[in-house]
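INFO  loader      accepted 1 record
INFO  loader      residues=149
INFO  predictor   begin
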Amino acid sequence: MRDLNGLIDRVRQRGCRVTRQRLAILQALCELDGHASAEQLHERVTQYQKDVDLSTVYRTLERLRDAHVVSQTDLGRGCAEYEIVTDHPHHHLICQECGRVTDLDHGYLAPVAGAIRQDFGFCPTFDHFAIFGLCKKCCEDDPEQIHEN
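INFO  predictor   done
INFO  writer      dumping tokens
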């Protein structure tokens, strides 16, 4: 479980108030300790605060995302997933054939972010990125897939 007090401090440093609803959502994020959908967070939060509705969870996650406290990523499961932003960004390779998810070190994307900044003057946020394609095994099972891109 992540450090809830440290997370609360970070939220305050980013100019957000820590209401009891936000506190409950932050606690749920810490307890789930990884990717979670708004629905999963809502289910966890309502275990100890019945009056927090799903729209409150969505609004809070949006605010925390905008404050760069949580990241929002599409991992191909049909909904956005949220995770606490850390000092060590991580990314995922997601196979569209078998569904395998492989962690990707930030070192692969850091040069891309630098090139985008240099070429376009645009500062991308690469704190949690998903790249879809085919894993090595699925490519080997269908060699024609390798040459399509």
